[in-house]
Amino acid sequence: MSHTVYLDHNATSPLKAEVKKAVIYAMEIEGNPSSVHGAGRKAKRLVEDAREQVRVAVNAPKSAQVIFTSCGTEANTLALNGVNPVRVLASATEHASVLGARSDIESIPVDAFGRVDLGHLQTMLAAGDGHALVSVMMANNETGVLQHIEDIAHLAHRFGALVHVDGIQALGKVNVDFLSLGIDMLSLSAHKIGGPLGVGALIASKDVKLQASNRGGGQGGGLRGGTENVSGISGFGVAAEIAKSELVGMQNVKALRDHLEAEIKAFAEDATVIADDVERLPNTSFISMAGVSAETQLMTMDLAGICVSAGSACSSGKSKSSLVLKAMGLGEDIAKTAIRVSLGHTNKKNDVDHFISAWKDLYQRQARKSQNNTAAV
Ligand code: PLP
Asked: What CATH code is carried by the domain that includes residue 234?
């Protein structure tokens, strides 16, 4: 019997069983967390427990503000618009939810791996006067490349700037430690860690003066009015706790990812694995098959029952060539032929072997096609 091989965990990572249990339990509670009666207090308890679970999962200080949102995009939007900076600097490889949050973002140039160029950042910070916000993602959603957040935060603070980190892809794959990173704000999203879709959080140090996105109702400490998504939040809390405790399991995921890349590189000399020689997420592989469009590869994989994507899948189903790769200075030949494979807690070696075999088949078919075309000329 054919089954789906799901290798798109960076788009969304399937719900974990313990999370599902927590979500169903919370859905059966009758109260509104703002009600003072017993049922309301029970719902409120779930929200407060989840707030603590999320805070602890990223080692944010006890005094930190943990504001639940409807998704990671909303958390990023709140961070970029809630502190009223004079300038906002963000790396050129940020997710669309950051780059689209404001129209006045100044783009920090990146190196050939998509990492913030500290020299450029220093020049930009030194050139401005007034209160700046620097927003940089911890791990890139397409390439998995990790930024040097501690160095960025240290530099930004020297110039009196605030630092926001989009930690949405990093959580559950590498250790995310708010205190050691030395940052002021951190965005998270539940569905990237086996939690429910449609719930996120912004964590901010107590000294960050945030302005509310929704005022009415006064929920979320007055910063995010509206009745809380109790079941989603409760599931997020459990997912965050598991993500922290299962981090060691990422070693197995990394071994599968490394096996996949080694097989492909040994088979096709002209395959490119993007940024494979710098620090990356252990689950992510962004691979270009020379001369074959990402769209053709995705369709072929889909027919073989394999779910992968062409870079970011979070932008309403579109499949364009990667802006991240372009910002890294890579040409269209690579940007238009790269697909992202992102592994996670559901995957076994068979899944990866199924992908490898489908990839090799397509490669060979394309090679024969180009040989025939050359012979016909
Ligand atoms: N930031 C990054 C790095 C992402 O990868 C994503 C989603 O893929 C988001 C933000 C947006 O998160 P959400 O889908 O919860 O809105």
From this structure: 3.40.640.10
Of 245, 270, 291, which marks where a domain is finished? 245
Instruction: Say how many C-beta atoms besides its own lie within 10 A of residue 237's C-beta.
Output: 30
Q: What is the pLDDT of residues 35-60, one digit of tens each?
A: 999 999 999 999 999 999 999 999 99
Nearest CA to ligand 1 atom 12: 72
Let me know whether 166 and 116 are in one domain. Answer: yes
Q: What angle do CA 91, 97, 99 make, to 5 degrees?
A: 40
For a pLDDT cut of 70, what percent of the chain falls above it? 96
Reported as a single tens digit per residue, the pLDDT across 280-296 is 999 999 999 999 999 99
Tokens representing 157 are: 């603070």
307 near 4, Cβ under 8 Å?
Answer: yes
**Annotation says 314 is catalytic:** yes
Looking at the CA of residue 11, tell me the nearest atom of ligand 1: 8
Q: Residue 154: how many CB atoms within 10 A of its CB?
A: 14
- Which residues on neighbouring strands pair with residue 106, listed in sequence order? 89
> CA–CA separation, 108 vs 57, rounded Å?
29
3-state SS assignment for residue 101: coil
Q: Whose CA is nearest to atom 7 of ligand 1?
A: 314
Rounded to the nearest integer, the mean pLDDT of the chain is 93
Q: Using CA atoms, how far apart are residues 213 and 187, in angstroms rounded to an integer? A: 15
Instruction: State the residue range of the domain holding 298.
Output: 5-13+248-376
Which residue in the list 314, 334, 338, 343 is annotated as catalytic? 314
Angle between helices 230-245 and 38-57 (to 10 degrees): 30
pLDDT of residue 364 exceeding 50, the answer is yes
166 lines ligand 1 (CB under 6 A): yes
Indicate if ligand 1 lies below 6 Å from the C-beta of 351.
no
Are 81 and 108 in a shared domain?
Answer: yes
CA of 237 to the centre of ligand 1 (A): 18
Q: What is the mean pLDDT of residues 350-369?
A: 96
**How far, in Å, CA of 239 to CA of 195, rounded?**
5
- Is the predicted pLDDT of residue 124 greater than 90, yes or no? yes
Mutate which of 10, 169, 318 to test ligand 1's pocket (most atoms within 8 Å of Cβ)?
Answer: 169
